[in-house]
Amino acid sequence: MFTGLVEEIGAIRSMRPQGKGFRISVAAKTILHDLKIDDSVSINGACQTVVRCDAASFDVEAVEETILKTTLGTFQPGKRVNLERALALGARLGGHIVQGHVDTRGTVRSVEEQQTSWLLSVEFPKEYARYIVPVGSICIDGVSLTAARVGDSSFTVAVIPHTWANTTLQELSVGNRVNLEFDIIGKYVERMMLYGQSDTHAQTPHETSPSGTSSGGMTETWLASMGY
Q: Which DSSP helix (H) or strand (E) runs through 184?
């Protein structure tokens, strides 16, 4: 699990094809002092497992599924990337809960400099609109941000100077693709609303269908009966 607070900007050293995936070598400094094989690292928002590391770099293996869902397959040597180690138990959660499981790729629609911030607008597939709400959390290329404005297939975030200066967001331009991860809490709520709970305890939500059979599901009727 991650927080979306980028620890440093690394750089891609090499991209070596492995089947339909890649073995990716990343140059870094800050995160290397306690990094070891099998650790998880977020690379532009995608959680990857370290398979080799030394004092100057580390390697990961991005498999086909990762290449299909993220921008990692488009990386070239020299590209700068946002890096974050997994959250340590007991540490402050300064951003929001980020799994490093990219949902989809978005496209930068506009980058607008303000007096005290930058407005970044991103377009994304419309089917994901239900997972983002105004002033809700969104992860863009591994950076935890707050949605200032939300449309049917786009959203806008305001980026403060510190975040702008210490992440690769400053390098984005119109048309660039970015990795997006939506808030995990919203996904679980949707799943519970659709399928409910499988147990038969008194608190299990259920309702009777017109045929007289009982079906599971977190319904409005059940929520009202529980005092919501």
A: helix 184-195
Residue tagged 């409910």 (tokens)? 196
Which of 106, 178, 48, 33 shows the shortest CA–CA distance to 8? 33
Q: What percentage of residues in the chain have a pLDDT greater than 70?
A: 87
Tell me the mean pLDDT in the region 36-60.
98
- For residue 161, give the 3-state DSSP assignment: helix
| H helix count then E strand count, the chain | 4, 14
Q: How many CB atoms are located within 10 Å of the residue 44 CB? A: 27
Identify which of 93, 91, 43, 110 has the alpha carbon closest to the alpha carbon of residue 70: 43
Cα distance between residue 110 and residue 206, in whole Å: 46
Rounded CA-CA distance 143/106 in Å is 14
How far, in Å, CA of 35 to CA of 8, rounded? 14
State the pTM of this model: 0.84
* Length of the chain counted residue by residue: 228
Band of residue 217 on the pLDDT scale cut at 50, 70, 90: low
Q: What is the mean pLDDT of residues 61-85?
A: 97
For the segment 159-199, what is each residue's pLDDT rounded down to a tens digit?
A: 999 999 999 999 999 999 999 999 988 888 888 888 765 54
Detail the DSSP E strand segments found in 19-117: 21-27, 40-43, 46-53, 57-62, 80-85, 104-113
Amino acid identity at 118: W
